[in-house]
User: Fold these one by one.
Assistant:
Number 1:
Amino acid sequence: MSCVKTDGVQTDKNSPKNNMGMDFNSPDIMQPRKPVMPPKELRNGGRVKSNAVAPSGVYLPNNNIQTPQMTSPEYVQLSTAAALTLGLMPGDMYNCSCTRCLNLLLTYPEGCRANCAYCGLARHREGERDYADRNFIRVDWPAVPMAQVAEIVAGQIKEDGDTPFHRMCISMITHPRSDADTFAVLKTWTDHVSPDDVMISILSNPTTMTRDDVAQLRDMGSDIFTVSLDAATPELFDRTRGKGVQSPHTWKKYWEILEDARDIFGPKKFGAHIIIGMGETEYEALHLVQQIVDMGGHSHMFCFFPEKGSLMDHLPATPRDQWRRVQLARYMIDYCGVRVEQMKFDSESRVTDFGLPKAEVEMTVESGIAFRTSGCPGKFAEDISACDRPYGDSPVSDIASYPFQPEGAHMRKIRKQLDMEKPGESYAPGEEFEDL
Ligand code: SF4
């Protein structure tokens, strides 16, 4: 687990270098490797199924024991941050006492049947690592009986409804059973926890879903429905999630379910995930953000990080200049009423003008909220995500999405990355960790 602070500042030895000195990841460089099929006996969870070890309680990944045969809906995986908050794992994270979103992942010995090029859960890893031991957004995901998770959270809710978690999110992954099992996991949850106390989000798998499934999830108490487009253009989608990597997803089907979500969940209750730095231009990404806002939804952004073991692990992480520009522009489109047409872009489609008077841009930067992790809101404010995914898209030493409110040296660092330093102020490398 690369982001748990054990002693002092955690740095990531594998932290990638910038893109040959460029301040954006260009499309010609961001080419995934071709997937190599694992030996036949290891496909479809072969090792886990042939050993058939019965699960018992919580399973912590990569513990040098045979991965048990765990299957949703009885079992789910949860993020390391959620496991720490629930007290299922020891440790703590830099500047985060807990996470406000309980992220759950369906789990099967065969794992996700898709092969997305940037994802640690992808199918091509079957030979190398059992599904429940694979890293996803840079961290391990312990497996836990679903009823146990629901019981612990129900027991944490105070009389006034206060609870560490503001939101619970089910990530469906791609599996023939994932629709039915999502309903079953949701039923176990709502049998224990009221949606009034902890709001529910669904991170969908459009490839297996129908419009009726979307409606059923709403009727069962879900508050927000999201579609992980991830890639910002149809070509990039096909290259990283479709035919280009022998994966089943199509841009068309993802948009069909996104439009169903718009119709069924309504304004501000649906959204799309977009990864920045996979080869799209800044204009293309922000044009998509505008399109989603015009539909009534929000976009949730992730900074590309070369996930270990993925088909893109040889590629550079998104340079922070590109990431900060897009983070700031996306916040302005999503929450400040600015339109992409008001912004200006250079010949490489980089943002050069955010479309607001300088003083207003300055105020937005100064508030720091634009640089926090984006996602479904919790109970604090509409523009503060419950889903803070600590260090899911960067190492602590070079934070992309801030899982806490950035202040002081962190803000000076952000300003330097944006080339918007205040007069008389400058950032000294590493100064944000001086107190540790
Ligand atoms: S569908 Fe989701 S979990 Fe599966 S490989 Fe693609 S990104 Fe990863």
Number 2:
Amino acid sequence: MPTVEEAGRVFTDPTAYADDERFHLACALLRSDAPVHRVEVEGFNPFWAITKHADVMEIERQHELWLNEPRPILGPAVSDEQQRQMNMTIRTLISIDAPDHPLMRAITADWFLPKSLSRLDDRIAELAKRYVDLMAELGGPAVHSGVVTRGLPGVGGRYTAEQVAARQWNDQLTYLFKLSNEEIIDGGKGGNATRHLNHSCNPNCEAVEEYDDAGRLELRFQTLVPVEAGDELFIDYGLTADDGSSPADYPCRCGAENCRGTMLDLGPEAEPHPGLVAR
Ligand SMILES: [Zn+2]
């Protein structure tokens, strides 16, 4: 059984959040022995741990007494200081108090009442299915602008479908990364080290598309299995040849048990998805 002091430290110890038994044991002890407990741990500004539901609700109701600002989220002292220096440029509902909070809350509060949400059930189910399907599709053989890209005129690595069509491509083999929105990334121009990832039919990495803060589609490479320092990273190129080449023109010798013998994507003609194209 931990002491009350030890129990209070679960809130500042990341490993405690991955150990349900330890975390709930600590909270149970705090609820019974110290339901309002001041935690003082090195690296954190002191805070009160409130562990009884009734107390939490009581605090929630007293907006004048209990404030959200300036520390709405528990974090290390260094991040408190960063927040302070940033002057709270991002003001969300959980980080602001009256008079702004009730005004901003009133804008959308009705939308999230159970009655309002129940009207959206069908639409939510439809959207959920669409995006889960999309994720499943993106999780398939995905790729990267590996290998060599060379001899392309101009600089900068990103083209729209129109720019690709208008561009004079030279005769040398060029691999480009095509996104599901038809944009093209040329990893050899203004790219980075990920362009050196080689192909494997049994890859240890995959490319994932995601939108950045500006709403632009970006690529992220993530591992599919644990890798050791020094391991070579591979992705499945899932290559598309836009000149109608046969699979034999892009042979694969990766040696994987499930090697399909070609770097071309042999999957069914599916919805737009990210993958390499050969030009
Ligand atoms: Zn292979």
